[in-house]
């Protein structure tokens, strides 16, 4: 299998559409009062007659799930019809408690939106066919000769987001998934965790000769549980289809599963075996009627979305493109940055934002990684980082000391100024005459380094700076020492 990207194939064009399922972060299930907080609970403990699919029970619509779905639809620029309904999707499978799933068929909660992605500087609008609401199934675990069922998951609100076949490369599909995940996390409607299965992706992919309008025969790929798997599976599948066509073969419409450890897709089900779902309107639920007022009310509930935050970080705080991107990709990191800024009253905004961003993206991220801690749980509080930045602004400590204090505050949870006080750290030597005196001594004692510097060996300057820093016990500011040292060396240059 070729390892190069197929998106540059000159003969064939790849066409991809994605169906994404996201479990919604509601407290209770879609049609009953059972808690959705079953992640660390014993199997089959979050169940009731409704989500067990007992005869005679009646479902009740979870309003919060409807709200979350409309929030998502609005964020994806979809139209929301005034009327929508639920339908029964019938198929026999052991994970389906009732023998059918309550879903939405011909009148979904929303339709015809788009998601904008930035593909290496090129803005691409990916059409959103629909965002609808349904319920999750039970979880099956297959063992040798038998299967185990856990009904805790059954009935969890599940939102389905279907895209148009607008993507033209596996990489573009990954970008779409990542952007969609960002939006869901910003909205607070989904945890966005693919590895835990709370966000899942099925892909429809076909290839066609470049220039041809008619779509090729597609296959549907399942079982991809990371962004990387999505891209790898689609790379593999596109290449497979191209090879079939090149060798004169015919693509079969089928469902294929991605086998992560083998890096291949395998056939699971052909079109002949496709289910006839016999959809019909769910008789136990009333139609969903949404007033314009309610939809506008939900629109006002939308938080700032990633693109808007990214733009604001550049305009309001003057952050560089790359920093603004990294800071907003992870909502929690951006939230931390915002709290540092909120705790930085009285500082010059843009200068403080730049410093805060530098410290967060280097030191704070490094410490979090080293201790395997999520930024939400960062022991160096935003107030503590703001305090550290104040100490640096006032030149109460040097940058080097700042890093040591950040390390210590990260472990102890102390405020940086309390650490400075407790350890009796003296203010940096910024008084010129003291520093100049030390520099003259260092120049006098290090003739070899001085001569090397004068002979054009720029490294020698660093050695001299090191000597001065040593003499001052790290109490001097390195950049100031360097400037003074260079000035002194130039002044005393023999004619
Ligand atoms: Zn239940």
Question: How is this fold's topology laid out?
Answer:
Layout: E1 12-23, H1 49-52, H2 63-75, E2 83-84, E3 87-90, E4 100-103, E5 110-119, E6 122-135, E7 139-143, E8 146-150, E9 157-163, H3 170-187, E10 199-209, E11 219-224, H4 227-246, E12 254-259, E13 264-270, E14 280-281, E15 288-289, H5 292-301, H6 306-315, H7 321-329, H8 331-342, H9 349-371, H10 382-393, H11 399-412, H12 416-422, H13 432-445, H14 447-454, H15 459-471, H16 478-491
The chain binds zinc ion.
Zinc ion (ZN) binds at residues 29, 32, 34, 47-48, 50-51, 155.
Task: Walk me through this protein's architecture.
This protein is an alpha+beta fold and 495 residues long. The protein has 3 domains: 6-297, no CATH class; 306-422, no CATH class; 432-491, Arc Repressor Mutant, subunit A (Orthogonal Bundle), CATH 1.10.10. The protein has 16 helices and 15 strands. The chain has an 8-stranded mixed beta sheet with strand order 5-6-9-1-10-11-12-13. A 3-stranded antiparallel beta sheet has the order 4-3-14, with no helix packed on it. Strands 2-15 form a two-stranded antiparallel sheet. The model has no long low-confidence stretch (mean pLDDT 93). Residues 29, 32, 34, 47-48, 50-51, 155 line the site of zinc ion (ZN). Zinc ion (ZN) binds at residues 29, 32, 34, 47-48, 50-51, 155.
């Amino acid at each position: 299998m070729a390892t190069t990207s197929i998106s540059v194939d000159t003969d064939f064009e790849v066409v991809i559409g994605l169906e994404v399922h996201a479990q919604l972060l509601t407290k209770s299930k879609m049609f009953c009062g059972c808690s959705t907080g079953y992640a660390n609970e014993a199997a089959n403990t979050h169940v009731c007659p409704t989500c067990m699919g007992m005869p005679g029970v009646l479902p009740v619509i979870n309003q919060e799930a409807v709200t979350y779905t409309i929030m998502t639809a609005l964020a994806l620029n979809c139209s929301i019809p005034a009327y929508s309904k639920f339908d029964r999707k019938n198929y026999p499978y052991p994970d389906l408690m009732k023998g059918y799933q309550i879903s939405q068929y011909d009148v979904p909660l929303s339709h015809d939106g788009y998601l904008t992605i930035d593909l290496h500087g090129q803005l691409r609008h990916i059409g959103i066919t629909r965002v609808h609401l349904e319920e999750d199934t039970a979880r099956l675990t297959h063992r040798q000769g038998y299967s185990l069922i856990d009904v805790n998951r059954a009935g969890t609100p599940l939102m389905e987001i279907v895209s148009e076949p607008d993507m033209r490369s596996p990489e573009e599909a990954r970008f779409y998934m990542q952007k969609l995940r960002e939006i869901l996390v910003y909205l607070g409607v989904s945890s966005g965790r693919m590895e835990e299965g709370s966000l899942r992706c099925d892909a429809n992919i076909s290839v066609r000769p470049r220039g041809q309008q008619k779509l090729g025969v597609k296959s549907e790929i399942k079982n991809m549980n990371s962004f990387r798997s999505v891209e790898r599976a689609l790379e593999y599948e596109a290449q497979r289809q191209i090879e079939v066509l090149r060798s004169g073969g015919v693509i079969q419409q089928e469902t294929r599963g991605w086998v992560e450890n083998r890096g291949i897709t395998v056939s699971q089900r052909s079109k002949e075996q496709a289910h006839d779902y016999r959809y019909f309107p769910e008789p136990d639920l009333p139609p969903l009627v949404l007033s314009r007022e309610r939809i506008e009310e939900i629109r006002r509930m939308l938080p700032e979305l990633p693109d808007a935050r990214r733009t604001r970080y550049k305009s309001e705080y003057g952050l560089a493109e790359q920093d603004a991107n990294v800071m907003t990709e992870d909502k929690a990191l951006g939230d931390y940055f915002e709290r540092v800024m909120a705790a930085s009253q009285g500082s010059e905004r843009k200068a403080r934002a730049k410093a805060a961003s530098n410290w967060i993206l280097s030191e704070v991220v490094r410490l979090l990684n080293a201790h395997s801690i999520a930024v939400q749980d960062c022991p160096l509080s935003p107030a503590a980082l703001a305090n550290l930045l104040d100490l640096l602004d006032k030149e109460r400590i040097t940058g080097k000391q700042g890093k040591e204090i950040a390390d210590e505050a990260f472990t102890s949870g102390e405020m940086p100024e309390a650490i400075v006080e407790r350890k009796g750290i003296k203010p940096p030597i910024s008084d010129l005459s003291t520093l100049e005196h030390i520099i003259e001594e260092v120049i006098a004692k290090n003739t070899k380094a001085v001569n090397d510097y004068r002979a054009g060996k720029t490294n020698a300057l660093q050695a001299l700076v090191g000597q001065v820093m040593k003499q001052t016990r790290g109490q001097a500011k390195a950049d100031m020492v360097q400037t003074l040292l260079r000035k002194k060396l130039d002044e005393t240059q023999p004619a």
